[in-house]
Amino acid sequence: MLSNERVRGIIYQLLLLAAVVGVGWYLISNTLHNLATRQIHVGFDFLGREAGFEIAESQIAYSAADTYARAFAVGLANTLYVAALGILLATVIGTLVGIARLSSNWLLSRLASAYVETMRNIPLLLQLFVWYGIFTELMPPVRQAIAFGDAVFITQRGLYYPWPQPHVAWQAAGWALPVGIALAGLWRRYARGLQARTGRQLPTALPAALLVFGLPLAAWAALGAPTALSLPELRGFNFRGGRALSPEFLALLLGLSTYTAAFIAEIVRAGILAIDRGQSEAALSLGLSRSQELRLVTLPQALRVIIPPMTSQYLNLTKNSSLAVAIGYPDLVAVANTTMNQTGQAIEAIAILMAIYLAISLLISLFMNWYNHRVRLVER
Amino acid sequence: MSAPDELPPARPPDERRGPFAWLRTNLFATPLDSALTLLLLAFLAWIVPKASGWLFIDAVWGPQPLAACDAVRGQGACWAVVWEKFRFMMFGVYPYEEQWRPAIAIVVLTGLLVVSGFRMFWNAWLAVIWTAGIVVTFWLMGGGLGLAPVRTEQWGGLPVTLILSIFGIAFAFPLGVLLALGRRSKLPLIRAFCVVYIEVIRGVPLITVLFMASVMFALFMPEGMRIEQLLRAQIAIILFVAAYLAEAVRGGLQAVSKGQYEAAEAIGFSYWQSMGLIVLPQALRISIPPIVNSFISMFKDTSLVVIIGIYDFAYAVKKSVETDFSWKKYFIEAFLFSIVIYWIYCFAMSKYSQKLERDLAHDHPR
Amino acid sequence: MTTHAEVQAPSTGAPPAVLIEKLDKWYGAFHVLKQIDLSVASGERIVICGPSGSGKSTLIRCINRLETHQDGRIVVNGTELADDLKQIERIRSEVGIVFQHFNLFPHLTVLDNCTLAPIWVRRKPRAEAEAAAMQLLERVKIADQAAKYPGQLSGGQQQRVAIARALCMTPSIMLFDEPTSALDPEMVKEVLDTMIMLAGEGMTMLCVTHEMGFAKAVADRVIFMDRGEIVEQNAPEAFFGNPQNERTRQFLSQVLHR
Asked: Which end of chain A is more exposed for a tag (fewer CB within 10 A), N or C?
């Protein structure tokens, strides 16, 4: 009977189940015992208690009197904020570097290669330390700030920049932006439809730019064109007014972006190289212009190859943002760390951490599966 | 051999030959290209003299006193800080007289990596060599059998980085293979367990796994049993890397053609026989490039153990300048030194990995 | 027949479709095309054969500027090929090419492959472009696959689609770069039949191929190239029946023994 494959299969699974349950029961009972000895209470109700610690910077309103749950929310917002900007910056830098590596200009391609080979082979943590060191030690003290006009100041406490005074015109401009984007999309649809019907090609790039930039501009102008800015001014020991980017944020953003950009550059390069030269030859032979060929033939195919590993890098960047705790940026992990130290609720805090990161990973995986399915090349 | 009426090949017009031709095609092909080249040359002309001035020419080398460095502050780099803090950066708080032991350990571990690169060792000998290397390293670092014992709390610096990554991959490897096999298993419970493990670990940052190990080990173990911090980090790294290795091996298993599985079954091999003798050797060969890449990533990621207070190389370097007020301002030179060391290891491994991929593709063209 | 003297365009005094004068091309220091002189009349069908490395593919790729030449001139339909981008694009829309490896666009359907250039270059409305494309797909007997993707078709089917795609731009000259060399033997015939049908309709064709049967059936002139130069050219009966040059004889004896 033991040689029967099905029976053996069941036995293996039962063994695994027994092992997992056994080990789990052992660990859990130890844990409960230890927790009891140290009089640590298990449960998530600590989230409702007052946090009692300040958080250096936050995208949403927060004070020490808010709950731990709110503190976690702040950490999450900070993580998402730096990750989103990092992804944007990394994509731009990485694409440029990747294209540069393919350039026929020898100097440009060698410099781009040097960038990739350097950034990829140094631990991110060290790069963050260096960036942080630059922004704190190498920047001048507040009294001797590097100034750009009277508006932008760089000091070892951060970068200060002007921000418009609140005014309904700016709010209107803000609302006009998505409207402009939507209208640009509609125009594009109309132009495509016209082309299909009559063959005429209407410009799409210029009108889109006009709508996306022009509409907010028009809204701002129509409501009074206010130019009043809140300027950072040196008062006492620090700057007041305007807005600030902390050295922690700058170091984390630049470190994450430049590091991930090196990997993205390789992905972009591989994607473009993956497209057979014959494709562009065929397109150009039909009389298509270079830009038409890129847009209609090369890019659609290259994107299929580029986007899956690219989303993987986006996920890596988001996970790597957890290194913020090493340089003092209050991201999710940092907040969780402080909470753990204060309340002793380590298990719950770590569980929350892992759950949130898992959720982000899952979302990105789902997106990638959906995208892959949608654009898969149909074959026999 | 040319035919009697064949035209002899003529030389191409002068613009196509020689160094000028090369400059023209590669740097000055179009007006835009030329403008770009000039811009880049201008940038290099500005930055290279400044950088080499600070890095090399005006820098202070060798075991110089602090005053020498202060004298050139801002003009030249203070590499003397490396000489000054060398032992601490390399070995952490390891007892001073015994520091020859971690030095040898560094050589042994690096040698292990180099030896593993040669294909002639890719057989059962590799396991023997690695086991020997690991045992010797343990003995050198920890003591016993004639050497003075040194507690793991005192281990630090480059040996710790190498130990964490090499031991990490050594122990993660069998676990990763098992997970990869389990993920492809037809038994639902086993597959579910493996899938959940792999996806959960790959979905969270290494920091959370380190936290988990650091914090929860104390709670998991019965009272009185203490697990050293270094061991906790090591276990965390092993569990973490195993998930990534599992995915790399899974790719290899998928690439092995179905015919191989079927042939093994037809011979009458059991599951473990067919895996061990037929499928895995092929799958692992295919997976070697992603496995090497996982190792490179892990080597870089060991720097994260600073979060839980372990003195790896990066932390040792950081601490070496942080705690000494007079040398503190030369932290950049110290970081650059550690960066160069990491870069050498990682660059060598990644170049090796690329070469390996080319060689393997060459051997087994599809 | 002659080796390096200019060949007069046959019969009519109409300007040649393709005129190549003293063409020289180098790849780096390698002289790949040596002093090529060739004149192709409108409606003429030329087959170019020769050993690999002789430069035959390079020569026809120069005609639509997929390769650039360093010396000499190429005149296509009265326009000289130079660096002017707009002119090059215009010439390319008058010259169709079929590649050895088809080079169909895998992310577009067969129909979209064919209508891409007419819509974006000739600015035709979609309905008109699709109607014209369907007509051509029917001529190459593949209209029933119009909604499929290239990945779903066999090699012979893909090559016929490639021919239809090139024809959709109503070229006056068709170039074929070893169109059947990448096909399994049983699919070669369907492509050759399509090319014979095309020849029968009066299309100016320059064809690089090893298919001597096709040359005998269709060609007005067969050209033998070796090591970058035109060694011999003649009408097919004379070319195959009475090769003048020793190199031609050698090549033919190797090829026709297959």
From this structure: N
C105 touches chain A (CB under 8 A): yes
Query: How far is residue A43's CA from residue A339's CA, in Å, rounded to a whole number?
Result: 14
> Residue A37 and residue B307: Cβ atoms within 8 Å?
no
* DSSP structure string for B94-120: --GGGTHHHHHHHHHHHHHHHHHHSGG
Range of the domain at B187: 89-363
- With a cut of 70, list the residues of chain A below it in pLDDT: 1-3, 380
C-alpha to C-alpha distance for B97 and B107, rounded to whole angstroms: 18
Question: Do the domain assignments include residue B164?
Answer: yes
Interface check for A237 against chain B (CB to CB < 8 A): the answer is no
ipTM above 0.95, yes or no: no
- CA gap A170, A154 in Å, rounded: 26
Whether B17 is covered by a domain: the verdict is no
pLDDT at residue B4, rounded to an integer: 63
Does C83 contact A at CB distance below 8 Å? no
For A123, which of B41, B300, B329 is closest by C-beta distance? B300
Could you read off the pLDDT of A204-258 as tens digits, one per residue? Answer: 889 999 999 999 999 888 888 888 888 888 887 788 878 889 999 999 999 999 9
**Domains of chain A, residue spans:** 5-37, 68-165+228-374
**Residue C240 at interface with chain B, using a CB cutoff of 8 Å:** no
Decide if A289 and C166 are in contact by the 8 Å CB cutoff: no
pLDDT, tens digit, 9 for 90 and up, residues B4-39: 667 777 777 665 567 777 787 778 877 888 888 999
Decide if domain A68-165+228-374 falls under CATH 1.10.340.30: no
**What's B105's domain CATH number?**
1.10.3720.10
Per DSSP, the three-state class of B306 is helix
Looking at chain C, which residue has its C-alpha nearest residue B22?
C28
Say if B44 falls within a structural domain.
Answer: no
Q: Is B14 on the interface with C (CB under 8 A)?
A: no
Domain count for chain B: 1
Angle at B309 between CA A255 and CA B209, to 5 degrees: 70
